Amino acid sequence: MPALYDLAFGYRDYEEEVAFLLVAHEKTSKVAVQTVLELAAGPARHSLTALRISDATIKKVTAIDLSPDMIAYAQEIAAMELPIDQQSDFEYRCADMRSFTMGNKVDTAWILLGSLQHLTTNDDVIQCFRCVHKAVQPDGTLILELPHPRETFSMVDCTRNGWEVPLEDEDGQESGALKIVWGDDNDAFDPITQVRQFTVTMQVTGPEAEAAGMEDVSQVIPLRLFTAQEIQALAQCAGWKVVQMYGALQEGVSVNDDDAAFRLVCVLRKQD
After folding, report:
1. What is the mean pLDDT of the chain?
2. What is the pTM of this model?
């Protein structure tokens, strides 16, 4: 259900995050960003935002995902939000991030919103990193956003994380809410594979949801928890080097900041 997924993460400041991604690339690469690849892109909000805020410096953005429904949804957003002269600058392809190919090389690639966690084995991650390595220009970058490693070491006590997104009707009046619960107290965690069976539940409340007979949407998703040193080792296996780590998709947040750091953001630079 792409629209629910998009709404659930709509609280994020995509313009601020994209500005950070571009600056993080510039700090570690001699290559200026003109082309972007976003993997497991979902609604492709970062890709579309990059085109909108770049003042035409970004010439081409390619998004990749396995879900045809998500791709169709993102293409509808692009048709509504991008100017006519930018429509052809956005390409969305249905492909596996472990086995895709690109015709032209890109300057930077992004795997955001913890999407790398869907690759639960070392072989999967290395295959993905190698595909991206082939797709990126020399001295280009791959930027990852993952949960902070402290979550990996607190998985013995699996707890839930929830938030609520208010919904508005056509007149701008509050008409309900989308409630998201990420994880459950009883979710199983395997300390050997570092894979947790995350229970994800979305519930829409309000008159429109009741009229449509919408029920809770719930799914169990296996996700891997990574440590920083694992990312460094897996990167080296595929021709990458971790050159910087941050604690959020924003400037000035150290990955070691106990208060402000809540994500693991790794900037990888392509090695010869």
Report:
1. 90
2. 0.91
Question: How many CA atoms lie less than 13 Å away from 171 in the CB half-sphere?
Answer: 3
For residue 164, the tally of other CB atoms under 10 A from its CB is 14
Q: How far apart are CA 92 and CA 90, in angstroms?
A: 7
Q: Which tokens belong to 176? A: 């309900």
How many whole angstroms separate alpha carbon 237 and alpha carbon 172? 51
239 and 116 both lie in a single domain: yes
Alpha helices in the chain (DSSP H): 2-8, 14-28, 45-53, 68-81, 122-135, 149-152, 207-212, 228-237
Distance separating alpha carbons of residues 71 and 6, to the nearest angstrom? 12
Looking at the structure, tell me whether residues 135 and 195 fall in a common domain: no
Are residues 218 and 201 in contact, defined by beta-carbon separation less than 8 angstroms?
yes
Yes or no: say if 187 and 219 are a contact pair by the CB < 8 Å rule.
no
Sequence-ordered list of residues with C-beta below 8 angstroms from that of 73, at least 6 positions apart, any chain: 2, 3, 6, 43
**257 has a pLDDT exceeding 90:** yes
Locate tokens 């460094």: which residue?
232
Q: Are residues 15 and 98 in the same domain?
A: yes
